[in-house]
Amino acid sequence: MQTARSSTGERSGDGANSGRGGSRLLRRVVRLTLALCIGAALLLALGFFWFVSTLPTEEVKLDRNADGIVALTGGASRIVDAIELLAAKRGQRLLISGANRSTNAGEISRLHPEFAAIVRCCVDFDRSLNTLGNAIETRKWAEQRNIRSLIVVTSGYHMPRAKAEIAHQLPGVTLIAFPVLSEKLRAEPWWSSAATLRLVLLEYLKFVFSQVRMHVNPSAGVAD
């Protein structure tokens, strides 16, 4: 009887110790998970402030020409600015990337007859749907024309992601940024408007996602 009680007590003690050990392990996992989440949030926050500090706040003046120009659509002023660069002989040919069906040589010539001749001569279009698609189509276009330097025209807040995607597709090509500043961002700082803050924050998250994708799957879209 004494032996039986002793065995029962040992089993009970082992169960209690096992329960306490499992509880301690669970607390450690929770603490580690919480620490990782806090660290990731801090890293994202610091990255966001770095991101906005790199955004252009003034128009740039190009100090060199390039073989070609690419304009990523999304704002009418991007296309006009890119055609003006082409007309000024900053590049030999222009790709308007991500153009919708209504954006074509005839429509641009109708809206801007002063550019009709150069649009018919030296402007190409693609119908890509996103920034990765822009970069892939730009690579195909640049490789066909042996372009070794490229002026990139897009909105200032979109420039970091656009350049990163194009540089990933065309690592041997020199990229020259020509950011187009919207009147809204020019008139007020990004933090003064909820809509502007949301726009910049969303673009930052897209930039982070693109960086992760390029590191995890660097060959995505490059060889298609």
Short characterization:
With 224 residues, the chain is of the alpha/beta class.
Tell me what you see in this structure:
With 224 residues, the chain is α/β, with parallel strands linked by helices. The protein folds into two domains: 1-54; 68-216, Rossmann fold, CATH 3.40.50. Helix content is 59%, strand content 12%. It contains eight helices and five strands. It has helices at residues 2-54, 76-87, 105-111, 116-122, 131-144, 159-169, 183-187, 194-216, and strands spanning 68-72, 93-97, 123-125, 149-155, 174-180. Strands 3-2-1-4-5 form a five-stranded parallel β-sheet, sandwiched between helices. Strand 1 (68-72), helix 2 (76-87) and strand 2 form a beta-alpha-beta unit. The radius of gyration is 27 Å and the shape is elongated. The N and C termini lie far apart (78 Å).
Lay out the secondary structure.
Blueprint: H1 2-54, E1 68-72, H2 76-87, E2 93-97, H3 105-111, H4 116-122, E3 123-125, H5 131-144, E4 149-155, H6 159-169, E5 174-180, H7 183-187, H8 194-216
Parallel strand pairs: 1-2, 1-4, 2-3, 4-5
